[in-house]
Design brief:
This protein is mostly helical. It contains 35 helices and 2 strands. The protein has a two-stranded antiparallel sheet with strand order 1-2. The longest helix has 19 residues, at 71-89. Pfam families: E_motif, PPR, PPR_2.
Length: 619
C-alpha cells in the first residue's frame, strides 16, 4: 500500500491512505521503515501540500538519532532538502528557515539547491546573520563557483544594504547571467545608487545579456530615487520597445515613478490604461496624489477602490491618511481610523505612524498621543513621528521629553529623529538644548550632521537674534549651504534689521535659484526700509523684466466636513463677497491697534489682492 502511495494521483485517495497510517505501526526508527515517511513527503509534494510534507517530516520519531554514517540518513536528508525547495515554491519562507535550522541540529547536509533556496529566504526576511553563516558554510563546502548560490548571496547582500560586499561577490563570480545583473542593479536602485545602476545596465547590454521585467522595474526605481522624470521617460520608452509594458510589476513601478516625480497626469494615464487594476496600483496612485497635495483626488480614488471590491491594506490607509492630513479633514480621518479597525487591518507601526501624522496635522495632538500609547512595540520611526507631531504643534517641551524617553528606553535616535527634535527646540526657543543635541550627534552617536540639521540650527539662531552664531555655523559647514539655509538666514536678517547681511544672503539665493522671487522681494524691502526707494524700484523692475513672480499660495479649511480651498486674490468661492467684507473689517481693526502691514503689502493695499491664508481665516 505504501509503495503504491507514490503512484496515486487522486489527492482525496492519498489523504485517506495517509489518515490510516498513524493508526498502524508503519513508522519505525529502522532504516527500512524510514522510507515510509519519505514516501509521505513525496506524496504531499505531488499534492502541492508543503504543510503536510513538513508535518510528516516532523513525525519521524527520534530525529536526533539520525546518523550521517548510514545510507538511510542520506535518504532522510534528501527528503528534508526536497521539502525546503517545495516550501520555498509555495512561499512558506519562515518555514524554510525553521526546517533548515532543524537540519543543522540533526547534522543533515544541505544540497546546493537547498542552500540557494535558504539564502533566498534569508534575503526576503532580511535575515543577514543567518545568511552570513550560510555564506561561510558555502565557502567550506566549495560551492562558491555555483552560479545559483552566488546569485543568492549577491541578492542577500544587496537587499540588506551591504553594497560593498555585493559588488565584491559580483566581481568574483566567474560568470554572470540575467539574475546576477538584475540583482546588482536592483541593489543599487534600492540603496540610492541610481547612477551606478544605470552604468551597470549599460554594462549588462554590452555583455549581450537581455534585461527582463525585473531589470526594468529596478531602473524605474532608480529614476525615482534620482527624481529624474526625463530619465524615467527614456526607460519607459525602452520598456515599450522591449515589450514588457504590460507587466504588472513594471507598470506599478512606472506609475510610482511618475507620481513621486510630480507628474500626476501621466501617472493617472497609466492607471486608466490598465484594465485589471490590483491593490498595488491603487496604492501607488493614492500615495502619489497625497504626496503632490491632490488630497481630494486621493479620497475619491479610495472610494473607487472599494467600489471595485478591493480590500484596502496598510499601504492604502497610509496614503489616504496622508491625504486627510494635508487637507486637515479631521472627521474623514476619524472615519478612516474606524474603517481600519472594522476591516481588521493589522495595526502595524506603519499604519500607526500614518494615524499619528494625520491627527497631528488636523490639530488633534491628544488623539495622536493616544494612538502612540496604544502601540506595544514601538520602533524609532514611531517615536520620531510623535516627536515631529509635537514639534509641528508648537509643543517643543513635550517633544524634548519624548526624545529623552526614547534615549532612556535604550533606542538609538537616527538622523531623522535628530531633525525632529532640533525642529522642536527651534519652535520652542530651546537654544541650549538644541546645541547639546547637535553636538551629541557626532560625539555620542557617530552621526555626521546633514543639511537638514544645519538648516534647523541656522533657523534657531536666526529666530533668537543670534545672527553672528548663525553666520559662523554657515561659514564652517562641511558642505555648500543650500537654498533653504540662505532663505532662513535672509528672513532672520530681515526680522532683526540687519540689511547688509541680508543682501549678501539674497545674492547667494540668486546664484542657487535665479527664478526664486524671495530674494528679490527681500532685497526690495531692505532698500525700502533704508529709504533707498530708487534701488527698491530698480529691483522690482528687474524682477518684472525677468518674469519672476511669487508663487501663488494655497490654503484650505474644513467646515461641516467639507474642505474649502483658497488661493491669493481668489473670488471663485460662492461666499466671496462676505469673505472679503469680513477681511476688510479685520484689517481695519488691526490698523487701529497698531499692526502695520509690510511694505510689499502696502503696495497691494487693495483688498482684492489679499493672500490665501487671510481668506481662509476670514471664511
Amino acid at each position: 500500500m505504501i509503495k503504491a502511495l507514490g503512484f496515486i494521483r487522486s489527492p482525496f485517495t492519498g489523504r485517506r491512505l495517509l489518515a490510516i497510517c498513524p493508526r498502524r505501526p508503519l513508522i519505525h526508527t529502522s532504516s527500512r521503515s524510514r522510507k515510509v515517511p519519505e514516501r509521505f513527503i513525496w506524496r504531499y509534494e505531488a499534492e502541492a501540500s508543503p504543510d503536510g510534507a513538513l508535518k510528516t517530516f516532523d513525525e519521524i520519531p527520534q530525529r536526533a538519532a539520525l546518523s550521517l554514517s548510514h545510507a538511510s540518513s542520506l535518504q532522510d536528508g534528501e527528503s528534508a532538502n526536497s521539502v525546503i525547495v517545495r516550501l520555498a515554491k509555495e512561499g512558506c519562507t519562515e518555514e524554510v528557515l525553521e526546517l533548515f535550522r532543524s537540519m543543522r541540529e540533526l547534522g543533515i547536509v544541505p544540497t546546493k539547491y537547498a542552500l540557494s533556496t535558504v539564502l533566498s529566504s534569508c534575503s526576503k526576511l532580511s535575515q543577514l546573520s543567518l545568511g552570513l553563516q550560510i555564506h561561510g558554510q558555502v565557502t567550506r563546502m566549495g560551492h562558491e563557483d555555483n552560479l545559483f548560490i552566488s546569485n543568492s548571496i549577491l541578492d542577500l547582500y544587496a537587499k540588506c544594504g551591504l553594497m560593498n560586499d555585493a559588488r565584491r561577490v559580483f566581481s568574483e563570480m566567474p560568470e554572470h547571467d540575467q539574475v546576477s545583473w538584475t540583482s546588482i542593479i536592483s541593489g543599487c536602485a534600492q540603496n540610492a545608487l541610481g547612477e551606478e545602476a544605470f552604468q551597470l545596465f549599460v554594462d549588462m547590454i554590452q555583455s549581450n545579456i537581455k534585461p527582463n521585467c525585473f531589470t526594468f522595474a529596478s531602473l524605474v526605481s532608480a529614476c525615482t530615487g534620482l527624481a529624474s522624470i526625463d530619465l524615467g521617460k527614456q526607460v519607459h520608452a525602452q520598456v515599450i520597445i522591449v515589450g514588457v509594458d504590460e507587466d504588472t510589476f513594471v507598470m506599478n513601478s512606472l506609475l510610482d515613478m511618475y507620481a513621486k516625480c510630480g507628474d500626476v497626469e501621466d501617472a493617472r494615464y497609466l492607471f486608466e490604461s490598465k484594465l485589471e487594476k490590483d491593490i498595488v496600483i491603487y496604492n501607488s496612485l493614492i500615495a502619489g496624489y497625497a504626496q503632490n497635495l491632490y488630497g481630494e483626488e486621493a479620497l475619491h480614488l479610495f472610494v473607487q477602490l472599494q467600489f471595485d471590491d478591493l480590500k484596502p491594506n496598510g499601504s492604502t490607509f497610509a496614503g489616504v491618511l496622508n491625504a486627510c492630513g494635508h487637507l486637515a479633514v479631521l472627521q474623514q480621518g476619524k472615519q478612516i481610523h474606524s474603517l481600519i479597525i472594522k476591516v481588521g487591518t493589522e495595526f502595524s507601526v506603519f499604519v500607526a505612524s500614518s494615524l499619528i501624522d494625520m491627527y497631528s496635522k488636523c490639530g488633534s495632538i491628544e488623539e495622536a498621543r493616544c494612538v502612540f500609547d496604544q502601540v506595544q512595540e514601538k520602533n524609532c520611526v514611531l517615536w520620531t513621528t510623535m516627536i515631529t507631531s509635537y514639534a509641528q504643534s508648537g509643543k517643543g517641551r513635550d517633544a524634548i521629553e519624548l526624545f529623552e524617553q526614547l534615549v532612556e528606553a535604550g533606542m538609538t535616535p537616527d538622523r531623522i529623529c535628530f531633525t525632529s527634535v532640533l525642529t522642536a527646540c527651534n519652535h520652542g526657543g530651546f537654544v541650549d538644548k538644541a546645541i547639546q543635541y547637535f553636538k551629541s550627534m557626532q560625539t555620542h552617536y557617530g552621526l555626521m550632521p546633514e543639511m537638514d540639521h544645519y538648516a534647523c540650527m541656522v533657523d534657531l539662531y536666526g529666530r533668537n537674534g543670534l545672527l553672528i552664531e548663525a553666520k559662523k555655523l554657515i561659514d564652517h559647514m562641511p558642505m555648500k549651504p543650500n537654498y533653504v539655509i540662505w532663505t532662513s538666514f535672509l528672513g532672520a536678517c530681515k526680522i532683526n534689521g540687519v540689511t547688509q547681511l541680508g543682501m549678501k544672503a539674497a545674492e547667494h539665493i540668486h546664484e542657487i535659484e535665479p527664478g526664486s522671487a524671495s530674494p528679490y522681494v527681500a532685497t526690495a524691502n531692505a532698500y525700502a526700509e533704508e529709504g533707498m526707494w530708487d534701488k527698491a524700484a530698480e529691483v522690482r523692475k528687474v524682477m518684472k523684466d525677468r518674469g519672476v513672480r511669487k508663487r501663488v499660495g494655497c490654503s484650505w479649511i474644513e467646515v461641516d466636513k467639507k474642505a474649502h480651498v483658497f488661493i491669493t486674490s481668489d473670488r471663485s468661492h460662492p461666499q466671496s463677497q462676505e469673505i472679503y467684507l469680513t477681511l476688510d473689517n479685520v484689517i481695519l481693526e488691526m490698523r487701529d491697534v497698531g499692526s502695520v502691514p509690510s511694505l510689499i503689502d502696502e503696495q497691494q493695499d487693495d483688498i482684492s489682492t489679499q493672500g490665501n491664508q487671510k481668506l481662509s481665516f476670514a471664511f
